[in-house]
């Protein structure tokens, strides 16, 4: 079989968690709404005569997100109308952004290379269709609680070349938006939606003449699996000399297959034109400066800095926080610990492995550091004392000794525990293990 | 007959308690019973109007009955924009303009007939039958605010509200022999008004006198948090402009050298209006609006028709998309011929199925920007521009049939100003003794210079003996 290179671009939609919706003052909380259609008004219901007024916070956050992804900002931006008929779209058009998105030309680094961000734009979410049966009759109901929720769309260049890189990218986007604390990006609640455009090529310098859009993916793991299976499917088609059909496909996680949803031979004509109800938006230097001042340290930079300063494991550290305010809290904890000559990398290790019975962001620094000290302080022991204790442990536990000799490394931990039990002391495990191995020979 | 009073007069007499609301509404209902069936002015009326009026007699508008075009959303009265698609639609909320009128003590007496969706200049495209011109019922009232203009002309209201996208206030005001003021785009909120051309729509008063327009504009103008396109600019007291004179005003006469206009009575009367302004102390120039493309192309109303048609149809096709047959009275097949025409033309302008280099819509917007530039230049030299409002007197009933561009030809003299978004007013200019029909003078001013319009129109009204 020929060697195919996957060409993957991603489009990810994320709902912002502003207090109110994008173009009206209705509450933005569709997932937890107690009933359908309670967070609605003339604007998000698209009633005659209603007019949209943009949510400044949502624009601020989009700009902030763009800056966090190293994007350029369009100083002159606008909203546009994107037309299509669907029952969950009450105006017959979606207010989105066409040729002047707030952010463009950004970048996200992954372990498999950098991915260019083509654009980030802001738009409104649609309502939701609910298919149900009432009095034995099949009906479709519309819930407009979600209609008008601010939605950012992040579009990459086709720079992704493997399922694992796609997963890493999506995860990173998730981490960054949660770090900025502007969305919960909970995929189960529909707050983050993943789409991948996939095609294969042999010649790296030529983009394929087709692409398949993959939708309905609701976890990072499924994203990786769905792309894997889709690549395989396309390879098989290409091997027969055919070209895969340009279409939208869904992913069925249970069967681990992708399936055709609709063909997409021509680009849809959305008849975009500038939204006349919203004047163009000028993003002044002053405005941008305010956003920059609110912008926390770059996520990657933060972990790099910590790694240099504290020699800690970046992956472990990243498990400890999500938002930038949590990161700030940790930073202060580290500073506090360092003053007390604590090895921060070990602290991080203990915290990440949940070996300390503490609550992050709630317990005070002193309590955390003292628990850490307690857990890690080792008692002094003389060589003679240790020799005696290890001998006794080996003698009373011949089965464990035999197990170890048969290659069961776990047996060592058991013998380590037994030795400490005999001495009734917390010892440096490496010292004890060294002695045990020495004695068993 | 108290219904014949002007707004100013009625307010004064009510203030002095020389007349009562009971008598005023009695006379109003009487003329309504007499004339509405024939003229077809109102689509719905508020039977409780008098009761509401009495609750408001201590407020500035003192319970005065106002006729409102049927595209303003009014709680309690059906709002259809004269289209069967919205047949019987009862709004869930109130438009900002009618809310302001109600808060000031005005009463929405009824909703007036209009061209369906405001598409037209005749009121003949209404799904509820045409309105007839009260000055002569064999003729059209103009449109799209034909019902509102006719309500005032027939004394079925003390004053009224209309909306103009291009000509829809001024042209029916001219044909019905009343005053119609189209404010600067963004001066008056569009919130709660069924959208036609969103980048053009301007609500405004239609009244018996210029003074009455100034009084109503004082109430309805201003920033609305619910309409992002309204201006923060402070609202002056427009009635103060009534006391000013036009000495040192520079006035330019435009459009009357066009071959189609040149020999009309409207052109002649506009020249006479210029002379009158001159006599009253203004400096008046005749501005050539030749078709010379190199020099003056953006002033040409012919190009304005093309640009306006494309822009407005595009916005119409978008604005009417929400009437998808799911949530409103009737499905899309209830759209009339005119609406369907406009939707299709609008979609054409926004679609690239011909693979043009540039969307028709985009080209039109570029030319529109030139109009704006051109007006700015003109207003750096002139305080006001004047032209006829419409090239002709009201046309007979039925004149629109089979002419898809009817409205555009009627409105060609006001379309350039609408595209630019500047303000204008139509005042009665001449009355034909035989037909009893009117011509209107269109006065235009720069952005947010409504005061100049009011000053000049008021002086003209007082001095032009019809």
The CATH class of the largest domain in chain B, by name, is: Alpha Beta
Instruction: Report Rg of chain B.
Output: 21 Å
Bin the helical content of chain B. Answer: 25-40%
CATH superfamily annotation of the largest domain in chain B: Amidase signature (AS) domain
* Adjacency order of strands in the biggest sheet of chain B: 1-3-2-4-6-5-10-11-9-7-8
| Sheet with most strands of chain A | 9 strands, mixed
SS-based class of chain B = alpha/beta
Give the CA-CA distance, first to last residue of chain A: 52 Å
Helical run tally of chain B: 16
What key attributes describe this structure?
heterodimer; A: 441 residues; alpha+beta; Arc Repressor Mutant, subunit A; 13 helices; B: 466 residues; alpha/beta; Amidase signature (AS) enzymes; 2 domains; 16 helices; 37% helix; globular
Q: Secondary-structure blueprint of this entry?
A:
The complex is a heterodimer of chains A (441) and B (466).
Chain A: E1 5-15, H1 56-68, E2 72-73, E3 76-77, E4 80-83, E5 93-96, E6 103-110, E7 113-124, E8 128-134, E9 137-143, E10 150-156, H2 163-179, E11 192-201, E12 212-217, H3 220-239, E13 247-252, E14 257-263, E15 273-274, E16 281-282, H4 285-294, H5 299-310, H6 314-318, H7 324-339, H8 344-352, H9 365-376, H10 383-396, H11 398-405, H12 410-423, H13 429-440
Parallel strand pairs in A: 12-13
Antiparallel strand pairs in A: 1-10, 1-11, 2-6, 3-16, 4-5, 4-15, 6-7, 7-10, 8-9, 11-12, 13-14
Chain B: H1 7-15, H2 21-39, E1 42-45, H3 49-55, E2 65-69, H4 96-103, E3 107-112, H5 146-153, E4 159-164, H6 170-176, E5 179-182, E6 202-207, H7 210-220, E7 250-253, H8 259-262, H9 265-279, E8 283-286, H10 293-296, H11 301-319, H12 337-350, H13 360-381, E9 384-388, H14 406-410, H15 415-420, E10 423-431, E11 438-445, H16 450-463
Parallel strand pairs in B: 2-3, 2-4, 7-8, 7-9
Antiparallel strand pairs in B: 1-3, 4-6, 5-6, 5-10, 9-11, 10-11
């Amino acid at each position: 079989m020929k060697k195919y290179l996957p060409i993957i671009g991603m489009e990810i939609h994320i709902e912002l968690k502003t207090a109110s919706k994008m173009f009206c003052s209705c509450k933005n909380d569709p997932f937890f709404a107690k009933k359908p259609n309670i967070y609605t008004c003339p604007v998000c219901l698209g009633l005659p005569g209603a007019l949209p007024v943009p949510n400044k916070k949502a624009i601020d956050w989009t700009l902030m997100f763009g800056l966090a992804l190293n994007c350029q900002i369009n100083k002159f931006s606008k909203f546009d109308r994107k037309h299509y008929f669907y029952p969950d779209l009450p105006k017959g058009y979606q207010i989105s952004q066409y040729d002047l998105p707030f952010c463009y030309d950004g970048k996200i680094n992954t372990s498999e290379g950098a991915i260019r961000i083509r654009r980030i734009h802001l738009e409104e979410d649609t309502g939701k269709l609910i298919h149900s049966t009432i009095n034995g009759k099949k009906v479709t109901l519309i819930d407009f609680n979600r209609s008008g929720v601010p939605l950012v769309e992040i579009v990459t260049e086709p720079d992704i070349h493997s399922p694992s890189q796609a997963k890493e990218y999506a995860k990173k986007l998730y981490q960054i938006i949660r770090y900025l604390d502007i969305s919960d990006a909970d995929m189960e609640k529909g707050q983050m939606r993943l789409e991948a455009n996939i095609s294969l090529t042999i010649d790296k310098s030529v983009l394929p003449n087709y692409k398949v859009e993959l939708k309905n993916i609701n976890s990072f793991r499924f994203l990786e699996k769905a792309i894997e299976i889709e690549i395989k499917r396309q390879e098989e088609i290409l091997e027969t000399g055919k070209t895969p059909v340009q279409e939208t496909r869904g992913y069925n996680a249970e069967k681990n297959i992708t399936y055709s949803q609709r063909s997409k031979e021509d680009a849809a004509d959305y008849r975009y034109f500038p939204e006349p109800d919203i004047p163009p938006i000028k993003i002044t230097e002053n405005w941008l400066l305010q956003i920059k001042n609110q912008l926390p340290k770059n996520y990657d930079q933060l972990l790099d800095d910590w790694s240099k300063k504290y020699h800690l494991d970046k992956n472990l550290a990243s498990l400890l926080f999500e938002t930038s305010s949590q990161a700030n809290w940790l930073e202060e904890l580290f500073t506090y610990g360092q003053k007390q000559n604590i090895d921060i990398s070990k602290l991080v290790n203990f915290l990440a492995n949940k070996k300390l019975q503490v609550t992050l962001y709630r317990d005070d620094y002193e309590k955390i550091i003292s628990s850490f000290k307690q857990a890690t302080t080792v008692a002094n022991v003389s060589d003679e004392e240790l020799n005696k204790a290890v001998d006794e442990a080996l003698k009373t536990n011949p089965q464990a000794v035999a197990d170890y000799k048969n290659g069961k490394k776990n047996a060592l931990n058991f013998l380590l525990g037994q030795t400490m039990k005999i001495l009734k002391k917390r010892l440096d495990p490496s010292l004890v293990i060294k002695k045990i191995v020495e004695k068993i020979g | 007959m108290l219904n014949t009073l002007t707004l100013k007069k009625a307010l004064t007499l009510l203030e002095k308690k020389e007349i009562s609301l009971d008598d005023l509404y009695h006379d109003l209902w009487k003329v309504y019973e007499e004339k509405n069936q024939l003229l077809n002015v109102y689509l719905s009326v508020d039977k409780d109007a008098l009761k509401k009026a009495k609750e408001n007699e201590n407020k500035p508008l003192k319970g005065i009955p106002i006729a409102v075009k049927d595209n303003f959303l009014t709680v309690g009265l059906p709002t259809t924009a004269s289209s069967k698609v919205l047949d019987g639609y009862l709004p869930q909320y109130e438009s900002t303009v009618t809310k302001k009128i109600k808060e000031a003590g005005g009463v929405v007496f009824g909703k007036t007939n209009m061209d369906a969706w405001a598409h037209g200049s005749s009121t003949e495209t209404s799904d509820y039958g045409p309105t007839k011109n009260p000055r002569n019922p064999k003729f059209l009232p103009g449109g799209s605010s034909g019902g509102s203009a006719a309500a005032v002309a027939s004394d079925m209201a003390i004053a009224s509200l209309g909306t103009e996208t291009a000509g829809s206030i001024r042209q029916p005001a001219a044909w019905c022999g009343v005053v119609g003021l189209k404010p600067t785009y963004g001066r008056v909120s569009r919130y709660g008004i069924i959208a036609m051309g969103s980048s053009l729509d301007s609500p405004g008063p239609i009244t018996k006198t210029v003074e009455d327009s100034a009084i109503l504009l004082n109430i309805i103008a201003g920033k609305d948090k619910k309409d992002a396109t309204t201006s923060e600019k402070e609202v002056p007291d427009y009635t103060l402009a009534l006391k000013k004179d036009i000495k040192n005003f520079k006035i330019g006469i435009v459009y009357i050298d066009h071959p189609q206009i040149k020999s009309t009575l409207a052109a002649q009367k506009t020249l006479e209006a210029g002379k009158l302004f001159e006599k009253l102390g203004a400096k008046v120039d005749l501005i050539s609006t030749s078709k010379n493309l190199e020099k003056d192309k953006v002033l040409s109303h012919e190009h304005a028709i093309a640009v306006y048609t494309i822009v407005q149809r595009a916005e119409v096709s978008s604005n009417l998309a929400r009437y998808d047959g799911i949530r409103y009275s009737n499905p899309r097949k209830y759209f009339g011929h005119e609406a369907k025409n406009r939707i299709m033309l609008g979609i054409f302008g926004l679609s690239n199925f011909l693979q043009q280099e540039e969307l028709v819509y985009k080209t039109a917007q570029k030319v529109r920007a030139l109009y704006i530039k051109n007006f700015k230049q003109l207003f750096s030299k002139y305080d006001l521009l004047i032209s006829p409002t419409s090239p002709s007197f009201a046309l007979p009933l039925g004149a629109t049939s089979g002419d898809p561009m009817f409205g555009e030809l009627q409105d060609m003299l006001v379309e350039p100003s609408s595209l630019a978004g500047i303000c204008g007013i139509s005042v009665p200019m001449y009355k034909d003794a035989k037909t009893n029909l009117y011509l209107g003078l269109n006065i235009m001013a720069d952005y947010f210079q409504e005061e100049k319009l009011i000053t000049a129109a008021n002086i003209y009204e007082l001095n032009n003996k019809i």
